[in-house]
Amino acid sequence: MEEKTSRIKSTTINSTVALSSKILIFVLQFICRTVFIKVLSTEYLGVNGLFTNILTMLSFAELGIGNAIIFKLYKPIAENDQEKIKTYMKFYQKAYILIGIVILTIGIIIIPFLKYMINDVPDIKENIYFIYVLFLANSTISYFFTYKKSIIIGYQKEYITTIINFIAVLIQNIVQIIILLVTKNYILYLLIQILATFLDNFISSKKADKMYPFIKDKNYEKISKTEEKKIFTDVKSLILYKIGDILSNGTDNIIISTFVGVSEVGLLSNYTTITNAIKTFLSSFFNGFTASVGNLNTTDDNKKKESIFYQILLLSFLIYGFISVAIILLSNNFIEIWLGNDYLLSFSVCFALGFNMYVDGMRFVNYTFRNTTGMFKKGRFMPLISSISNVILSLILVQYIGIFGVLIATGLTRLFILTVYDPYLLHKYKFNTSCKRYYLTYLYYLIITGIDLFICSFIISKIAIGGILGFIIKGIIIMIISYIIFLIFTFKMKEFKELKNIAKNIIQKKVIKRKEV
After folding, report:
1. What's the first-to-final CA gap in the chain, in angstroms?
2. Which of 72, 94, 259, 470 has the greatest number of C-beta atoms within 10 Å?
């Protein structure tokens, strides 16, 4: 009971801090991007989006070692086995330094091939290759420090790294806005980003040393050959997951740039800036559950794991169901208010972005349980199959329906491959139950979301008010209608009652603490 209370407390703190910081970060980045668009041209947006995708592809070199090591840390952290923690951390450190060097090397090697990834060379004064090198430097820096963040996260104190990140991003965005307004210099803008990335990781690393000084001890047991072999067995499986993620997440802008144009990548990046901010915001909230789920998987029985699984699935639906509908119906309204009609894309693009948000959000619980239970080997080919299917489908659809085809291909392949297969593995090998319940529950949630989308779309189409006021009114209506519909269909579910009790206990404890103070 005490361990459960500790998990809930840690999850609450981590999620609350993450949510608060991401809201503020989104506001800052939104202001910074607005200044960026007003000061610089659409071509710079396209360059940002393209190089970000290329470096996502390069992250293949990480090979999933991080996930394998963090999984290994859950048990010794739960048992406070400092010697074992030191062993894994030293191995992790060496692996990530090597990975950083490999990514830097590969990144330099592909410089001559950049011209083949750009359909139309952007009309900017800066050297496109130098800009790429700055993006590469920003991406590489974190690999030399980030391994120490894992021990803070493993001890369920992720809120500490979140606060450090927030301060770094706060300073970064303020300085970048000043630089854009005063100098209009894109290179200085990127250099500040690199400095902020360095400071974020460096300070987090020093904080980990201070909190857990034993990790600096040079006397440690080297990882055994048996354990090393087990880690690399997991890593070989995770390589396939990594390739799958990269092909799925890192190719969209490259395909659009190649077949449609860099300018369209820039227009799309305005939409993905919003959706990625929302995704990051929500991921920060849900990632607060990760260490607690990892701890749960070392201490509790399968029935308890399954119960928590379905509680998180319902929570995911209640949040991502509303968010996906709002993205579909309000994205163009937001872009029109923010930037004007010249920056609008079709409604079909909005639908694809909302659909992808829903599919990704509903996969969180599967992804988290799979990683925290160390289930890396089974099903290792499925992400690769999904991503290859995604690329093939994207290359076909982009010829006929352009950007929408590339985006919708991502959601469809993840829905019909990963959303089907991952829960099958979890239920069979971790919960020891049939996954029929999951499929029926998922379909039930999907139908409810479809009903909500239809009703909200019909009602807001009758609202003639435009501008900021119209946007706010539509957003409020969508939120009210969505949660009325969701509550009607879920309030009798066991998971809903369990979530309600957890929320009630958290609120009551906060009230008692305030009274004591």
Report:
1. 25
2. 72
Q: Residue ranges of the chain with pLDDT lower than 50?
A: 1-3, 61-62, 511, 517
DSSP letter (8 states) at residue 435: S
Nearest of 145, 162, 187 to residue 14 by alpha carbon: 162
DSSP string, 116-147: GG-SS----SS-HHHHHHHHHHHHHHGGGTGG
* Cα 517–Cα 17–Cα 12 angle in degrees, nearest 5: 70
- Look at residue 460 in the predicted model and tell me its pLDDT: 94
CA–centroid distance for 415 within its chain: 17
Residue keyed to tokens 């048990």: 75
pLDDT at 56: 64
Q: List, in order, residues 6 or more apart from 490 with CB less than 8 Å away.
A: 314, 317, 318, 448, 496
pLDDT of residue 61: 46
Output the DSSP codes for 212-241: -GGGG-S--PPPPHHHHHHHHHHHHHHHHH
CB 65 within 8 A of CB 235: yes
* Residue 222 contacts residue 83 (beta carbons within 8 Å): no
Angle between helices 42-58 and 262-287 (to 10 degrees): 60
How far apart are alpha carbons 460 and 448 in whole angstroms? Answer: 18
Instruction: Kindly list the distances between the CA atom of residue 469 and the CA atoms of 323, 465, 466, 473, 486, in Å, as whole numbers in the listed order.
Output: 19, 7, 7, 6, 26
Q: How big is the chain, counted in residues?
A: 517
Enumerate the H helices of 414-493 as residue ranges: 419-426, 436-460, 467-490
The residue assigned the tokens 């690999």 is 143
CA atoms within 13 A on the CB side of 266: 22
Q: Is 25 exposed, middle or buried (0-12, 13-18, 19+ CB in 10 A)?
A: buried
The full DSSP string for 29-72 is: HHHHHHHHHHHS-HHHHHHHHHHHHHHHHHGGGGTTHHHHHHHH
Q: Residue 300 has what pLDDT?
A: 59
For residue 29, give the nearest of 216, 318, 274, 293 by alpha carbon: 274
